[in-house]
Amino acid sequence: MARKTIEQRLAELDAQRATLKARLGKQERANDTRRKVLLGALVLHRLEHGRDEISRALPDWLRRELPGFLTRDGDKELFDDLLAAPAAGGDGRPAS
C-alpha cells in the first residue's frame, strides 16, 4: 500500500478539523436552545405558581420589557396574554 504524502495527510486532518468544528457548533447551538427553553419554563412556572416578591413583580417587568424585545408580529401574538394590562383587582398573573 502506498504511503500517503504529507499533503494528503494534512488535507485529511483539515477535513477532520472542519467536521469537528461543525459538530461543536451544532452542539453549542443545541445547548443554547436548551438553556433558553429551560429559562423560559422557569419564568412561566414562576408566573403561574410563584408567590414571592420577584414572581409578583415579573408580570409588570415583562409588560415593560417584552414589547421592545419582540420584533415579529407572530412573536408578539404569542405573548398577548402577558402583554395585556391586568384586570382591575387582578394579581397581574395570566389566566391558567
Automatic annotation (TrEMBL):
Residues 3-30 form a coiled coil. It comes from the Bacteria. Keywords: Coiled coil. This is Relaxasome subunit MobC. It comes from Chelatococcus asaccharovorans.
